[in-house]
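Problem statement: downstream parser choked on a complex file, so we are re-checking the raw output for the coenzyme A run. The parser issue turned out to be on our end (a line-ending mismatch), but while we're here, posting the original submission so the record is complete.
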Amino acid sequence: MAQALPLAPVPAPPPAAPAERLFAHPDARVESADIGPRTRIWAFAHVLQGARIGADCNLCDHTFVKGGAVVGDRVTVKCGVQLWDGVTLENDVFVGPNATFTNDLFPRSRRGPAEPAHVSRAPTRVRRGASIGANATILPGVTIGAGAMVGAGAVVTRDVPPRAIVVGNPAAVTGYVDDRGAAGQPARLRAREIRQRQPVEQTPLIAGAQLYELPRISDARGHLSFAELDQSLPFPVVRYFLVFGVPSREVRGEHAHRTLGQFLVCVHGSCSVRLFDGDASEEILLNRPDLGLHIPPMVWTTEYKYSPDAVLLVLASDLYRDEDYIRDLDQYLALLAERPDGCEREPAPAPASCLTPSCLNP
Ligand SMILES: CC(C)(COP(=O)(O)OP(=O)(O)OC[C@H]1O[C@@H](n2cnc3c(N)ncnc32)[C@H](O)[C@@H]1OP(=O)(O)O)[C@@H](O)C(=O)NCCC(=O)NCCS
């Protein structure tokens, strides 16, 4: 019987080069062993046992990390921030000085040893690449979407959509990071506010979307605007729905459709519609009942900045089908990337008839 060869001893891994090691300031207290290489932990920081911290992070002075917190790679946590149990910061997150996380929505102090401690641990997640401004407060159970920007001093009470900019108390969406240039200046967003009727009936927008000047007939009795469903609109209308009574800070939409076409008319008040095609974006103010917006399939759409009196009429090319919705921005971008090279979006179909009042008889 052949004798088993002795196993070669497994060589011990070489000691990490100094630059690879965790750096902890002599005045920091680090009790967790689960910290990635090259992470720096500065003076008077306290990291409890069990806390998980990735590589290349920077935890500044006076940070406090509880054992149930999870921090990804390349995360920056500025001075005076506490990360409680249930807080997860994904890779490349930035947390500004004195930003405050919370994990108990309705805190109560314990009134005696007999009373059980009031414990509520709603998890908070900050998705990859998001930034939180100085002194912002994040309420429990909130998810801050990937790449989002929370303004200084904001009080975040609800989930923040991916790549949205939110400010104020309660924090509301004021824009999107994709609409800003590299130096932080508004660069790529074309905000359209068309107060006066335009001489042309249709204005092309990004991704095959189109603005329609609907006919308006005015006399002493008021105004009348209309469309002939089977001729004037870019698709046969199968369904309509109305959006109204929306608090102005509320974001609606935030999705794309695989096949559905939509035609939007803000018949009262105003709202803004942001179109994003995975590269460029464009924001349209709908503030007249004779201004229509055609949105073809596969355009990431956000409706927000509703006036309190806004009534948005949406004409749709199909019945409601949940599977037609793409609600995840990453999934939308992945689907766009899957398209074969040179596969352009279908051009918006021209309406069968002219829309000028002289051509149509209401
Ligand atoms: C949210 C933020 C990114 C917005 O920047 P911006 O898009 O350049 O904003 P603008 O300066 O163009 O301001 C747009 C409007 O929002 C308001 N605004 C901007 N930041 C705000 C904030 N944090 N809270 C309340 N309102 C804010 C402005 O007053 C302005 O209002 P107006 O249109 O009525 O005049 C920025 O203001 C911010 O808070 N950055 C975080 C800074 C920080 O904490 N850094 C930490 C590292 S030290």
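For whoever reads this later: The pocket of coenzyme A is lined by residues 96-97, 133-134, 149, 151-154, 165, 167-168, 174 (CB under 6 Å).
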